[in-house]
Each structure stands twice: as C-alpha cells, then as structure tokens.
Design brief:
- The chain is of the alpha/beta class.
- The protein is built from 13 helices and 21 strands.
- A 6-stranded mixed β-sheet has the order 13-8-1-4-5-14, with helices on both faces. A 5-stranded mixed β-sheet has the order 18-17-21-19-20, with helices on one face.
- α11 links the parallel β17 and β18.
- α4 runs antiparallel to α8, α5 packs antiparallel against α6 and α11 crosses α13.
Amino acid sequence: MSYTPHRYSTQKRLQEHKESRKKAASLPLFRLFLIILTFFLIIFSLNIYNPSLVPGQLRVISLNKKKNILVLGCDEILSKTEEHGQKIWKGRSDTIAIVGCDAEKNTLNILNIPRDTKIRVPHFGLQKMNFLNSIAGPIFTKRALEKMLKIKIDSYVIVNVKGLNEIIDEVGGITIDVPQRMQYKDYSGMLFIDLVPGKQVLNGDQALGFVRFRHDALGDIGRIQRQQAFIRAAINKLWDPVTFTKLPQLGSMYEKTILTNMKTKELIKVANFARNVPKKNQSIVMLPGEFGSEDGVSYWVADQEQTRSIVRRLFYGEKIIENDEPIKIAILNASKKDNLLATKLSHRLRQYDHSIMYTQDHKSYLKTTKIYAQNGNYETALKVKKNLRNIGEIIVGNFGPPDTDVTILAGDDLVDFINKEGN
C-alpha cells in the first residue's frame, strides 16, 4: 500500500505534463490567430479611413479601379417603366456633373456641365443639355455627353432634389459658407430662400435653397459655383461619425431620392472612396465656355479647345501645358482686418505681370485665404500662391467671374504680409 500515493503522484505529474504540452502547442496557434485577426482589423479599418493604402484586391468597401459616373439632379421627377422592365426617371436635369473616381491615383475629379449648355441632338435639333433627360432618360444624356467629351461614362445616378432635403435633415444639416445675402420667393414652385452671408449649418430646405438660387449677377454660373460648394460640404459631412449612425434611417429614404444603375454596394464603395480623397486631390471644375444665343435663345457655348484640355487633365491624368500669357486674376476682399486688402493685393500681383481683371469686397469674412484654380490648372494657382509667400489654400474649382484663371478670396492671413511688403 505504500507505493499507491507515489503512483498517484506520478500519474498526476504525467497528466499535468501532457496538459502543459497541449497548452504550449496551442500557444503558437493562438498567436497566429491574433496576428491574422489583427491583420484583418487593420485592413478593414484602412478600408474605411484610408483605402488608398490598401492593395486593390483587398479593397472590400472602397473602389479599386477607375470609375466615371454621371450625376443628374432633377427638381421634377416623371417616373416610367420601359418595355424591358427598367425603371427610369425623366424630367429636366438642373444639375449635371460627371464624377471621375481614380482609385490608383486617389483623385476625385468633377466636371460641372451648365444646364443651358448648347448641344445638337439627332432628330431633336438644337437643345439645352438639361432637356436631354426629359427626352429619353439618363442613358440618352450619358451617350450625348460621351460623344461630346470623348470619355467613357460607366454609371449614372439621378437625384430627386425634392427628397434630398430629408436626407440633409437626417444627418443634422450641412455646413456651408454663404457668400452673399440670398432672398427669393416662388409660391408656385414652393421655393422660399432667405439666407444671410457667413459660415453656418443649413437644414435641408435652406441647403436646397442655397443650391437652387439663381438671382445674382452670374445667374446659372453662380448657381453652379454654389453646387460645387455644396458638393465639397457634402464630402466633408461624410467624415462625420454621426452620418454612419444614420445609415439605417437613410436607407429608408434611398429609393425615393436616388435612382441608379449601380448596386448598393457600389454606391457605398464610391461614397467611402470620396470621403477619403484628400482636399488637394479634389477638383471640381465647370465646363469652360461663354454665353451665346441663337434664334433668340440663350445658351452656354463650350470652348472646344479648353474643354479638351480640362477633360485630358481630369479624366486622363494629363498635365496641362501652360502658355506664356499673363494669369488673369479676380480678387475679392474677405478680410475683416483691412478693407483695402484687395487694392493692395492687386498692386503686389501686377509686379509679377499678372492681369488683375476684377477687385471687389466679399460679403463674408475669412481667416484663411482661398485661391481658386478656375480653369482646373493647379499649377497656375500654385504660381500665384508662391507670389504670396505660399499663404492661402488652393482649391481646384470655380468662384467669381468665369472668365478669369484664378480667383483669390483674400482673408486675414494676408494682411500682415501685404502691409509689411508695402513698408
């Protein structure tokens, strides 16, 4: 009987040894599991917050290739189902834009097409661009723009503007810098606009009023410039965590607000891609041209040479070759500190042989100067910025008179520099 405890003790040690070996063997597997889990969490996180760092084949919720999308905004929707079962929304498209997403270069380029752009349509003669969707829907508009601009458009999105206000309200409004006093009443169209200048959060009705307002000196061109400001504000709103918490509610509004030939997962990829493109890689440019008329009808007539140049830059990634002509500049004084800043700035820039086309006071104030590359050429705006000791933020987009190369919204950050230079 004396050996029994010893035998029991030996068995226990053997059992403990086996268990320790099992634990030792499972430890590398557990570590491997943690490494794999960490890898997938990192990839998932990067997919959401910085997809440009993720290899194309691992981008599960962001674009992994180039994609051009036609976006049409319609105030009045006429729904129709064609013979082959496809649902289309017809109606005049007051907002027309081609969105170019380049996942490889991590760039977002948008070309705004003025609604009154002149176009000749087979069997329909001379028309304004916004009428094409009324004729035969988005595919018809898409093909006309492909032919006009010599680019391939992959998909389309039609936005019911009257439903967009609900989405804006659901995400808590949108922050926009209103450039001027805006007042307008249209009882028949149920449009009531009453906005004061300055940076502010607009609710759905106010934001749509901001976009639809046309009663200023620039008419429809000013409206397009406000569309660009709205698009930039919408992209910024995508960064707001509150937007993601509202996805279930937004989903219920989706069908009555948006019609597209893209699948839902493609839309999510596009939205996630757009929200992660840095500002310096965002370009929103208007189709270059000028006002003209034919048979008493006013049109926006595209400049063919400038259009080819901008299309090559936005959708094919080519550099624009600069000419030796003076840079045409408009200056708007947005400084609260110096009401003579625009005049002083014009004197400074003329020293570099720039052509100052226009100076005026701006209706709201800015701390940081904004330099708009009107013709889509970042390098042109960069040259002007260097002449200002690199003060200011460059925006590839349109603001102010459309016949200039660069518009400067001169803010308070330029005051000390200009006054020191003048002494």
